[in-house]
Design brief:
- The structure is a single chain.
- The chain is built from 12 helices and 5 strands.
- It is an alpha/beta fold and 257 residues long.
- It has 2 domains: 149 residues, Rossmann fold; 90 residues, no CATH class.
- The chain has a 5-stranded parallel sheet.
- Helix 11 runs antiparallel to helix 12.
- The termini are far apart.
Length: 257
């Protein structure tokens, strides 16, 4: 009797810090179970033994910042049965999307001694701006337990149980007093997707929006509250202008303020 073929998994890197790929390696014991269930066919962060596609599933980290990568993601899409973006860079352009609000030529001239040799696009865009994406896993970096749930769901042909509620719901579950109400601390928790376990509010820090906007976020209602807590227009822009600045609900606030 022949052995059933394992589904093939490919992991791709574009403009990013590699943190979301490391979340896969951080699964440790669970990673052994994953490698028993799938064949890791492409993953330069982990191995040089890579196989040619097509691939059943591709996990894509990073944003598109060069013309070369804009072409490369098209090829990745062609080779992938299911394409999943992981992390803020891949789902919202990442912190490098701050260039979208400025002149990238000024940045390159300030940073590089020979900026004429730098070939880059004027903007940093998410993968979904270039190809069809089947599922997005948010976070900077992603939650490794959510990644494990996603892979398990794919293997069993079911929808992944990834929450679309806000960070506020996580504060409630862990019994954290609302720092915005109790202390007047500016916090993006009401408009940010759950996934971090409300880590920052648990240490009396406002949520920085690492997991990007939740489903249907009411940013218009949050902005006046942020102003009541001491932020001026520049402060409001700055709090939204971090890891997910190019995500549409956050971008609209930055452009409006």
């Amino acid at each position: 009797m022949s052995t059933p073929r394992k589904p093939t998994l490919a992991v791709w890197k574009f403009a990013s810090c590699d943190g979301c790929q490391l979340s896969l390696l951080d699964l440790e014991d669970e990673l052994l179970a994953i490698t028993d269930a799938v064949q890791i066919a492409e993953f330069h962060e982990a191995t040089s033994n890579n196989l040619e596609g097509p691939y059943d599933v591709s996990l894509v980290e990073g944003s598109i910042t060069t013309a070369h990568d804009a072409q490369r993601i098209q090829r990745v899409r062609e080779l992938s049965g299911t394409l999943i973006t992981i992390g803020a860079c891949a789902t919202a352009g990442g912190v490098q999307a701050l260039r979208n609000f400025a002149d990238v030529r000024e940045f390159t001239e300030a940073v590089y001694a020979s900026p004429q040799y730098i070939s880059t696009l004027a903007s940093s865009t998410p993968i979904a701006a270039h190809v069809k994406v089947d599922f997005e896993l948010r976070g900077c970096p992603i939650n490794k337990h959510q990644l494990l749930e996603l892979i398990g769901a794919l293997l069993h042909g079911r929808r992944p149980a990834i929450p679309s509620t806000s960070v506020c719901s996580e504060c409630k579950r862990r019994g954290t007093v609302c720092i915005a109400v109790a202390h007047g601390t500016p916090c993006l928790g009401p408009v940010t997707q759950a996934g971090c376990g409300a880590l920052c509010p648990a240490y009396n820090r406002g949520c920085f929006g690492c997991f990007g906007p939740m489903e249907a976020p009411n940013t218009a209602a949050l902005v006046p509250l942020l102003r009541e807590h001491g932020l001026d227009g520049d402060g409001v822009r700055r709090i939204f202008q971090t890891f997910n600045a190019a995500a549409e609900p956050f971008r609209k606030v930055v452009e409006h303020e």
